[in-house]
Amino acid sequence: MVAFASSLDQAGPMARSALDCALLLSAMAGPDLDRDSTSLDLPATNYAIDLIASSAGNTLATGPKGLKNLRIGLPTQFFGAGCAPDVLAAVRAALAEFEKLGATLVDVDLPLTELSIPVYYVIAPAEASSNLSRFDGVRYGHRAAHYTDLNDMYKKSRSEGFGDEATRRIMIGTYVLSHGYYDAYYLKAQKIRRLIAEDFQKAFTQCDIIAGPVSPTVAWKLGEKSDDPVASYLADIYTLSSSLAGLPGMSVPAGFGAHGLPVGLQLIGNYFREAQLLGTAHQFQLATDWHLRHPADY
After folding, report:
1. Burial 122-132 (b: 16+ CB within 10 A, else e)
2. How far is residue 292 CA from its own chain's centroid?
């Protein structure tokens, strides 16, 4: 499976290949100025045409021979002691495939990576608190079946409709947006978010694509960390910074780690460079078959 994201929200699996992601993005691309004031006035792009041509043995936009002249940046913060050896081994093997395709690996620095977790878990809950306030059981969302008055309906509807994690984030978000804490938490987090985005722009002066692990470990057992939300938050260390910066990114299967569980390779592109990002992933998938294999096959 392949995940693709270009916003603060974390993406789930969207497709089975980079080509499928390109087809989806092509269908969604383009301005929607009549209905969305935040939509960029950029022309729609067919992100799949070059990928389809390369699959047929023709030239890909990224270069005449695979990924020739492509510079892939490796953040030193993504390859440190916090990453499990089996994950690092799989990612390094995947990066070796990119070198075979003609890409050059360069070291880059993203010094504020460790701050991405606290920044994200201030900003995202604040957005959740604001956006989810509309789910009151009156116009949107679940409505409790039994209640005594309007206030009781609000309480029961929201208590029944939101799970533990959603409730936790709403409470955190309400706290950081409250009077007396807005400047100390939310405003400061937004300032650091801007600095994180600036770090990426400095890195992109040295490379075209940034790569690294998706997670420090392979997947946990189902429910293993249910009672430890902090551990779950820490597992997002490699993916949150690009989301905070608003950069397009994707996760592609890159091998198997401990217990035969999949390892994901994260690819991050610069603003409006989705075509290059998808082309890079597609070339990797033409040269390997990890995206077609399952843990049981390993």
Report:
1. bbbbbebbeeb
2. 21
Spatial contact of 47 and 275, defined as CB atoms under 8 Å apart: yes
Dig out the tokens for 108 from the structure.
Answer: 């880059």
β-pairing, 249-256 vs 104-108, is unpaired
DSSP secondary structure letters along 98-120: HHHTT-EEEEE--TTGGGHHHHH
User: What SS3 state is found at 70?
Assistant: coil
Across 16-108, the runs of DSSP E, i.e. the strands, are 71-75, 104-108
Do 108 and 75 meet the contact criterion of CB atoms below 8 Å apart?
Answer: yes
Question: Could you tell me the residue ranges of all domains in the chain?
Answer: 2-30+43-114+189-293
- 10-residue mean pLDDT profile of the chain (298 residues): values are 52 78 89 80 85 65 66 94 90 95 95 93 90 84 88 87 86 88 91 96 96 91 74 84 94 90 95 93 92 78
Sheet architecture: strand order including 249-256: 13-15, 2-5, 249-256, 262-269, 209-213, 71-75, 104-108
**CATH domain 2-30+43-114+189-293 topology:** Amidase signature (AS) enzymes (3.90.1300)
The confidence score (pLDDT) of residue 78 equals: 93
Contacts of 54 (CB under 8 A, 6+ apart): 60, 279, 282, 283, 286
The predicted pLDDT at position 60 comes to 43
